[in-house]
TrEMBL record:
Keyword Flavoprotein: yes
InterPro entries: Luciferase-like_dom, Luciferase-like_sf, SsuD_RutA_monooxygenase
Protein name: LLM class flavin-dependent oxidoreductase
GO biological process annotation, one example: alkanesulfonate catabolic process
Superkingdom of origin organism: Bacteria
Entry keyword set: Flavoprotein, FMN, Monooxygenase, Oxidoreductase
Species whose genome carries this gene: Frankia nepalensis
Amino acid sequence: MQVARAAEHAGFDRVLIPCSFSNGSYGLDAPYVDAYTSGMACLAATTRLEVLIAHRPGFVNPGVFAHMCATADEWSGGRLALNIVTAGVPGDMEQYGDVLDHDARYRRASEFVDIIRSLWTLRDTNHGGEFYRMADARLAAMPVQPNGPAIHLVGASPAAIAMAAAQADVYMMQAHTVEETGRRITEVRNLAAELGRSIRFAVWSRIITAETDEEARRRMRDFVAHADPQIAVAHAVHRRRSESIEDVRLRVNSSIDTWLAPNIWSGVAHLTHGAAWVGSYEAIAELMCRYTEVGVTDFQLTGHPYLEEAYHVGEHIIPVVKRKLAERSQGAATATEEKSRVRPDERWTT
């Protein structure tokens, strides 16, 4: 709750509550607390902030979950969003008896989203699918948001991309080069257009910034120095290391010293997951503006420690990016009468 309040004060639009039964970043004996319960506490502790709760289909009936979310969205004034997650580190879901394979999890997740959206928008829902059954189901409470909480999806597999094109409101990607991000946006946007849909695109990244590039690199080295190599070894030995397509790609033929681009450090994937933006405030702000030029509208940022970095990014990054985007929009408006596609009101998640 303290981080959520800090994020709201610092100018973020939303906070993400991740879900996991075992920890993929820290020790295996340090599991996460429940995401939905934590998300409700964050909604209660804030007044403006949207709370993006990660949820894994398979453990809660979709009708029950739709009712839970409709109630939360109603009393929070429409501030709930959902990140539908199909899996996690190997063994995480299996420890509680969920042993579906990769593609089956996506089929189940797709049914799950169809059902909750039907319940949020229709009087009665009937469904007979591979995983779920609904018979004249209806809700007592309905969401404030017309189509219910926005659905965020992530993943680079064909199944993930197909589901995102068909059902996501926001497709989230781990940080990669601007060029690769633009390629993926084009791919998913075209697939969505074929289905008569349009969606937003988000990039997630760890962020390590300072006044200068040199100081940011020093903070990065400090991050590495404080990492416990035994944790990474334990994850590998117990096969509890992320095997997502994106993380595997980052680790192949690379080391902790590998960079995808001058300010994109992919070597961090050998310690945890994903990549990191490392650089001065101006350099990272400029990099983020370049992402908007290829279609990114939402930024999801992670910094350590969470509380301090919420204030740090709110003070030194968000205002700079907004200023740069406003300047780009002003320049585009001066140069042409066509409406600029670059907006100064990008969305921010911590």
